[in-house]
Amino acid sequence: MSEDKKVIFPKSIVKAWLDKAMEKEYQITVYPKDKILGDRFLNFIKSKKLDYKIFEDKVVIIAKDPIKVANIIVQIERMGYFVETL
Fold this sequence. Notes:
alpha+beta
């Protein structure tokens, strides 16, 4: 039994789209809901090798990889924080 691979988009088009998407800069802002943005949260962000800026009551995370940003949003929301995308 052989597997049939269905191609939706040619690889060259997908690669070009990804290259263009990786040129943009994506920012998300993280606000606390019930928790404070403590050392554990900041260590989590550092472990993901993301650029970030700390303000009084929020953290702005900056990255160029849209897939990594989407993944980090899901993880942060599961931790109980509110995430706003810009």
